[in-house]
Design brief:
heterodimer, A: alpha/beta, three-stranded antiparallel β-sheet, 8 helices, 11 strands, 31% helix, B: mainly alpha, ABC transporter involved in vitamin B12 uptake, BtuC, two-stranded antiparallel ribbon
Chain lengths: 251, 286
């Protein structure tokens, strides 16, 4: 679907991405993790084709349709747009009527129902809960008939329950055949539950299942700090060790 | 017998062709500015309307000096100014407000200096600065009609691209919308709008005509489509009422139109919340 080979990106002040190789296949549910400034969002933009590479290539299957769910912090919540308008604007390419047609209205209702947003089409996007807001933007991406959807920090700022809702929804959509690529800071709440993870710190440190990459060696290289894995109730839990850092500095 | 209010003959000014033209232009200009102003306000570019109107005033002076068509010269100057601002913002680490401030005030100052040295290029400078119903010609009428038709066609065809680009530029670009083209065409439309309305509104007050109806409409609705509609109506009513007030109070048309729109703002500020809730039929969830 998307093949990244030897990708290097800089914004004029050092490499943001260095020699990145990555393949996104049909049906993937892929998480990109890494510390702040590691190039997660840049890699997402590169996969979307909206970043200029210094070298290397990003090859997308011809005619691939993509959707993007932005970070909630980037949304202008005071913008006058209802849920239906927000979803409807996604079909903007080519000739479209200004108004949402009857068939589009049926599709929008269907998408909203699928995402548990039935009856909210006339609401302003600000007047929704955090989880509903996230799902509106997911609905907008789905309304483009995207084959692959990119989500930038989809659970940022959400409470635990809402985070679980979003994660389950993404899993359900993926099981229905949608390819999903997301970035996340949340190693335990999100990344550990994904089938495939990319650990990124300017370059790709590791790619694989959580069992393969959520290991101390890879995490230390990714985050530049010692991290430990605990087994708790059959789950792997990543913990950092601030005490170790303090002791290390004092030594 | 004609309608009268407090002894004022309300239909009296309509006996004059210049007034009929003025009312028509002001009403249409109000609707046009109201609709275009929605995009300006929602892009946090309110200051660019103010700046462009000043820059276009400079274009008038330059066009007069060069002996070329005033409308075309001023329009080209306005578009050039808008594109220059965009180019500076893309190439240098300064904000758009700062770039607008530098480029448009320089263009305005250049025009003022030229008028001081060479005289007005065919129109009274005061009329251009503050608006004058007496200055409305048939050329103004046809210009505003043409720009209004152009704006409606552009917004009709590009409604969703404009909305998507205005709301969420990065996602719009990522999903295939030509956001650069949309932005450029909007700048051209904005320049044409300012150019077509400056003779009625005056350079110094056009920004208010672009901003106030849109802000009032925003306070009345949470829907973008309704905001466009409300802003067009509020702008048109402000133009119509303001022009009549201008005649009866013997005050320049620009200030009376803006003051009428400001009255709408006060009303919306007081009653906007309850109006919006009734219009949308929902309360706030949190």
């Amino acid at each position: 679907m998307i093949d990244v080979a030897g990708l290097c990106v800089d914004y004029g002040a050092g490499d943001v991405l260095t020699d990145v190789d990555l393949m996104v296949a049909d049906g993937d549910l892929l998480g990109i993790v890494g510390p702040s400034g590691s190039g997660k969002s840049t890699l997402l933009k590169a996969l979307l084709g909206s970043v200029e590479a210094r070298s290397g290539t990003v090859t997308r299957r011809p005619g691939l349709t993509v959707g993007l769910v932005p970070q909630v912090e980037q949304i202008d919540w005071s913008f006058p747009v209802t849920v239906a308008e927000c979803v409807g604007m996604a079909r903007a390419r080519g000739w479209r009527t200004p108004w949402i047609t009857r068939s589009e209205r049926t599709e929008i209702d269907s998408v909203l129902e699928r995402l548990g947003l039935r009856g909210l089409a006339g609401r302003h996007i600000r007047d929704l809960s955090g989880g509903q807001q996230q799902r509106v933007f997911l609905a907008r991406a789905l309304f483009t008939n995207a084959e692959v959807i990119f989500l930038d920090e989809p659970t940022s700022g959400l409470d635990v329950r809402t985070r679980h809702e979003v994660l389950h929804l993404l899993d359900e959509l993926n099981r229905q055949g949608l390819t999903i690529v997301l970035t996340t800071h949340d190693l335990n709440g999100i990344a550990a539950h994904l089938p495939r993870i990319v650990c990124l710190n300017t370059r790709v440190i590791g790619v694989g299942s959580p069992e393969d990459v959520l290991v101390p060696e890879v995490l230390e290289q990714t985050y530049g700090s010692p991290m430990h894995i605990l087994e708790h109730g059959g789950m792997r839990v990543v913990v950092d060790s601030p005490l170790h850092l303090v002791e290390g500095e004092g030594a | 017998m004609t309608p009268a209010l407090l002894g004022i003959d309300l239909l009296k000014p309509f006996e004059f062709e210049f007034f009929r033209n003025g009312v028509f232009v002001a009403t249409l200009a109000g609707a046009l500015c109201g609709i275009v102003g929605c995009y300006v306000v929602l892009r946090n570019m309110s200051y660019i309307g103010h700046g462009l109107s000043h820059a276009i005033f400079g274009g008038y002076a330059v066009a007069g000096l060069l002996g070329i068509n005033l409308f075309l010269g001023a329009g080209a100057w306005g578009v050039l100014t808008a594109l220059t601002i965009g180019a500076i913002v893309r190439r240098r680490p300064i904000g758009s407000d700062a770039a607008i401030g530098v480029v448009t005030t320089a263009a305005f100052a250049f025009g003022l200096a030229l008028i001081q040295i060479y005289g007005s290029p065919g129109r009274n400078a005061d009329a251009l600065l503050f608006g004058n119903v007496l200055g409305v010609t048939w050329a103004d009428v046809w210009l505003i009609v043409a720009v209004s038709i152009g704006a409606l066609v552009f917004i009709f065809i590009g409604y969703r691209q404009l909305l998507f680009t205005t709301f969420d530029t990065e996602v719009a670009r990522a999903t295939g919308v030509k956001t650069g083209l949309v932005d450029g065409l909007l700048m051209v439309l904005l320049s044409a709008t300012v150019l077509a309305t400056m003779n009625v509104m005056g350079v110094t007050l056009i920004a208010a005509n672009l901003v106030v109806p849109a802000v009032v409409a925003r306070m009345l609705t949470d829907s973008f489509a309704r905001m466009l509609m409300y802003a067009g109506v509020i702008g048109a009513v402000s133009g119509f009422v303001g022009m009549n007030a201008s005649y009866h109070l013997d005050v320049a048309s620009g200030p009376t139109i803006v003051l009428t729109a400001a009255a709408f703002f006060i009303l919306a500020f007081i009653a906007g919340g309850s109006f919006r809730r009734r219009a949308s039929g929902v309360g706030h969830a949190h």
